[in-house]
Amino acid sequence: MAGSFAIGPARAAQYEGRATVFVVLTCLLAALGGALFGYDIGISGGVTSMDDFLVKFFPDVYAKKHAEESNDSHYCKYDNQKLAAFTSSLYIAGLISTFGASYTTRAYGRRITILIAGASFLIGAGLDAGAADIYMLIVGRLMLGVGVGFGNQAVPLYLSEMAPPQWRGGLNMTFQLATTLGIFFANLVNYGTQHIRGWGWRLSLGLAAVPAFIMFMGGLFVYETPNSLIERGQSEKGKLVLTKIRGTDNVQAEFTDLMEASQVARTVTHPFANLLRKRNRPQLVMAFCLPIFQILTGINSILFYAPVIFQALGFGSNASLYSSVFTGGVMVLGSIITIVTVDRFGRRLLLITGGVVMSVCQVIIAILLAKFYSGDEALSKGLSIIVTLLICFFVLGFATSWGGLGWVVPSEIFPLEIRSAGQSVVVSVNLLFTFAIAQAFLSMLCGLKYGIFLFFAFWETFMTIFVYFLLPETKDVPLEEMIYVWKAHWFWGKFVAADHADSEKV
């Protein structure tokens, strides 16, 4: 259907280079953007379950949570749009800022964009930690959203362009590993700070400043990618950087590909318009579908609101945060597994396997809750253990597939002339649906109850079928020769071939 293919030009076979220490350290530094993204995802759910935080900013939710007599089921105790806005405001700010990030990424480089992201994270963490009212709290979340928009725009591109083709998947997965470590650390922090009366939530929100500071300071010393330097007319410097990161002087083949790609890129004055060309239809479809599918797995809902979900299922406050720490650890394990396997087994196999695992887990959870849980009482101990294990298997399925590959695949499929524009679409679509799900999830949980798991299971099944038929394998393919993937595909090749003879650029 859509498996491997033979690369067109033989030039890729002449590429030399290895995963040098310089590449690894640079990629780890850039992946701190993932750690900040993960920390901000993980920290909000735990903070919103803390009584001191609720009393100060959301007293209505606190009153409903602790009401001895209430007509609300456990599913509905946190159904509050202002509380949801605390979480989702970050992502609407990220959505808006990613268009500015697309410009800076192309015009000034990936490195400058990463620096802007680090500075925004620093400001946002400071505002949230010192928040005196709900408005200051939301402004802080908005600044964190700017950091997410700039970081998610630049970091995946940076990692893809710095890594040698044969190790690109594993090195690019450091972004997802850092994201999961950020989530795991956030859960640990929340578990500890819940016991600090009065200001524990401030510490949880403020600790985001630590990786933000490291990211900003490190960004002052790393090199720009060769692709970006050459694209912006600094070819000699680009070749010098390429020589350093590949660990060899024999980089002429790769340098020639980059020069040819940059010549095409410089003829494109309107990259977003060029993205609409028929020959770029496959990449445009993936730029929309892959980030939508990643969100519709339901993972962000579980990560945002893990303590809330566990409390909605009748877990106590301590037990819910403890369960969140456990699932965060599973995310880290899954990301490590993917780093080891992605360049051996490829993207398609992992995405398909992960989709099957996630959908099965969600369906079983829905069946168990429908049969044994009415929403008015706590789960039995046995059922609590089973549900926690199923959620962990679901998280493992996500972490080994859509978690990282939802970012890796889009970052490596675009030609250089539309790469920044394409990544901007990916990030903006991801953040738009993240915002929508984050804002709607608590109401959906209240209205659908156990049906929320069936909702996400449907989409996991659909996306697995989509990948099987429409996503070609991109393992080991140099970025500048990715066009031959689409030409060889049974379906997408029709679009590329139809437009191939037309060399006019928009």
UniProtKB/TrEMBL annotation:
InterPro entries: MFS_dom, MFS_STP/MST-like_plant, MFS_sugar_transport-like, MFS_trans_sf, STP/PLT_plant, Sugar/inositol_transpt, Sugar_transporter_CS
GO cellular component: membrane
Transmembrane segments: 21-39, 83-105, 112-132, 138-159, 171-189, 201-223, 284-309, 321-342, 349-373, 385-409, 421-442, 448-471
PROSITE patterns cross-referenced by the UniProt entry: MFS, SUGAR_TRANSPORT_1, SUGAR_TRANSPORT_2
Membrane topology listed for this record: Multi-pass membrane protein
Keyword Transferase: no
Keywords from the named record: Membrane, Sugar transport, Symport, Transmembrane, Transmembrane helix, Transport
Localization of this protein: Membrane
Taxonomic superkingdom: Eukaryota
A Pfam family it matches: Sugar_tr
SUPFAM superfamilies: MFS general substrate transporter (SSF103473)
Chief location bin: membrane
MF (Gene Ontology): monosaccharide transmembrane transporter activity; symporter activity
Residue ranges constituting the Major facilitator superfamily (MFS) profile domain according to the UniProt record: 26-475
NCBIfam families (alphabetical): SP
Family: Belongs to the major facilitator superfamily. Sugar transporter (TC 2.A.1.1) family.
Protein name as catalogued: Major facilitator superfamily (MFS) profile domain-containing protein
Organism field: Adiantum capillus-veneris
